[in-house]
Design a protein that fits this description.
Length: 342
């Protein structure tokens, strides 16, 4: 259904009608004003102002064959990990005069698909997506329709689609190994849903490390699914553990925002960190080192991840797919040990 004119964005035809000229004359005023008589140009410019006309950039770029916009869909733009990721993408795109548009799926596959459609309609050069589900058939369809796709922060289940990821299984191993080395034999893992590949892989890494240490995950691991991958989700999850009288001595969190909620709750409950409960996060976002109890965290090379994804996308939709896997590192701080490195 066409929107009523009052709300529809004015088109170039509306401007031509209002100025009493052809669409071609309006196009000349916009692109080659020197070809238009001053009186006519003034009438067209008055109509543009009157109608608040904004030219359709993608149509212009498409006509000129110079599409210079790229879309990125992340899981949660409020998570500093994804803003750091977007910064890495943008700085790489900027070198080639490309513009980045960022959207947040909020872990919702339907919202992700809605943004994909919007980006395709806008005629972007390509999209980088942190998928909200394991199924990427809809991304293969976007690529078949001619828009480049790069999986972001996710290894690809289809070799034909490029991907840039961090080895999250290794990240889970690093966190579990550290807590075992600190003498913990039972770990609470506050995790996201396993439909999110990063969460499933981190869990796999924790289990692998517990088994390698001769422990039974059924007794040595308590996995709690957080209601949301942020500080409120971390608070709700750790409160649930405390209220059920199940106080773990070690809590590994799927990301630093969840860890922030855990630290906030433990402080409110006068539970000392790390003496009574050790806490480890994931991402090593900027605030991790700045907290009153600096947070031990699994560091992701976030900025490099974004820049590399942008590199792959700028190779174009017909380039041979590449699959890049970065390695995480563990940054040990006071939230998980009484002897943090200096
Ligand atoms: O969205 C959940 C997590 O996955 C983020 O915090 C980041 O770690 C990403 O890899």
């Amino acid at each position: 259904m066409t929107q009523p004119a009052a709300h529809r964005r004015a088109s170039i035809a509306d401007v031509a009608r209002a100025a009493g000229v052809s669409v071609g004359t309006v196009s000349n005023v916009l692109n080659r004003p020197e070809r238009v008589l001053p009186g006519t140009r003034e009438r067209v410019e008055a109509a543009i102002d009157e109608l608040s006309f904004v030219r359709n950039g993608s149509a212009r770029q498409l006509r000129a064959g110079t599409i210079t916009t790229v879309g990125a869909i992340v899981l949660d733009i409020a998570n500093p990990f994804f803003t750091d990721l977007a910064r890495g993408i943008e700085e790489r795109l900027d070198r080639d005069d490309f513009t980045l548009m960022v959207a947040s799926s909020d872990d919702d596959p339907d919202r992700e698909q809605r943004y994909l459609r919007l980006f395709e309609e806008h005629g972007v050069q390509g999209v980088m997506v942190v998928p909200a589900t394991d199924d990427i058939e809809h991304l293969l369809a976007v690529r078949r329709r001619g828009t480049g796709v790069v999986l972001l922060d996710r290894p690809s289940s289809d070799p034909s689609i490029s991907s840039v990821a961090v080895d999250d299984v290794r990240g889970g191993e690093l966190a579990a190994r550290h807590l075992l080395d600190e003498g913990h034999t039972r770990i609470a893992f506050l995790n996201g849903p396993h439909t999110i590949r990063q969460c499933a892989d981190r869990y796999e890494g924790v289990v692998k490390e517990l088994v390698a240490a001769g422990l039974d995950p059924a007794t040595a691991l308590v996995e709690v699914t957080v209601p949301s991958l942020n500080a409120d989700g971390g608070e709700a999850a750790v409160r649930g553990l405390l209220e059920h009288g199940d106080r773990p001595t070690a809590v590994f969190c799927v990301n630093d925002l969840v860890a922030l909620g855990v630290l906030r709750t433990l402080r409110t409950e006068n539970i000392s960190v790390p003496a009574e409960v050790a806490v480890v996060g994931y991402d090593d976002v900027t605030f991790a080192a700045e907290l009153s109890t600096p947070l031990t965290s699994v560091r992701q090379p976030t900025h490099e991840l974004g820049a590399r994804a942008a590199d792959l996308l700028l190779n174009g939709p017909d380039a041979t797919a590449e699959h890049v896997m970065f390695q995480p590192t563990l940054v040990v701080r006071a939230s998980s040990t009484s002897t943090p490195p200096k």
